[in-house]
Amino acid sequence: MSIERLHVRHLKVDSYFWGLYCLSRNLLMASLFYTRWVYLAFLGLCLFGLVEAQDEGDFLSLQRRIQEVYEENRDAVVRVSAAFENAGEGGKTRVDIGTGFFISRDGHVMTNANSTSGADRIWIVHREISYAAEMLGGDSYTNISLLRVLSIPSNFRFLHLTDSPELPIAGTMVLRISALLEFKPSPSLGLVTGTESRFGSNIFPVPYIRTDIPGGPGEGGSPLLDLNGKLVGILVYALPVEVQGSYSLPARAALRIRDDLHFSGKINYGWIGIEVEPLSSRKEGSQVVIEKVTSETPAEEAGLLSGDVLVALGDSEIRDVSDVSEAVFYLRENQFVGVRVRRDGELLDFTVPVIARPEDEPLRRLSFEEPNDRGTGEAVLEAPLLRNEKGESEIDDVVSGKEGNNDRESTEED
Hints:
25% of the residues lie in helices and 33% in strands. The chain has five helices and 21 strands.
């Protein structure tokens, strides 16, 4: 065999093995490439399933927590009925229905004052059994009344009123338990949407908790709980239908009302004898100025003067008229309160004794609709209070988000 033919044969064999090698290598690389993407796709599906399972687990955990808070506290909630003789149509007896809840093992029940004050008979319904109750006292300023059940149920729970100044922030999930109309205590879930010290021309005694849970018939007096099961407030006012939502009195304020009604049957509101007004300037910003110092009062005797800028009252820093209302709300007769003012650029501190508010110095009370003919006892802040200087309703502005009249000035007596 010639050398040329042998060389050609070797070339053919080498080409064959080289082609086989290249094909094998390409198949291996393709296999690895596709295997990698198949693996990544499989891993992605697994992760997606884990995330989806985690989301579902979080949702179910939240749902279980809501159910737990409801189950743990529903036996503290009662339906409150109040009968008013000759108050209905044609001289018939009118029955107002609301919600309340036990706040002690001694059978004390907290509810709304507007549905119980002046009633001839009051009773509660707990686990479909009626129990007679008596009213220990009520306060129309906060729309709170305190009842005592005469024959205590054998098995019930009660909610704790805490003296915590912290309010739930906007976005906090809350659960309200109501015994509306003839239904058993039922839960309603919602969000805290803000805290306000006023609504229209109504100035609240303390910042109220606003939620997006409307106040329906017979729900006044319902407890408001966070998802830790802590009582944070009591429903006292429903917002107009156009606004949707409701206001709850904070638990700390309800505790202050409870103490006075339990021990004396009336509220011991403190007073030092000043009237204040807001004052704003570009240089100083928003301030609160003493407009008037009533003669022969603790404020006058301590040395406070008209024109003094209020800086602090007790432990409360004063930035707005509503801060004064809140600070004074917690004052009681026979206490002493520290007052810091700015006078001619100088900070001055005074110690002022607190006396009982005179009867001829009535508190500014919130205005709300009277119980309707359904006897629901529902307290609704009046929409007509939202009027601007031209007499035009501002309720549409509130709903649509248009800017309303912000030029109001108010005077508070403290």
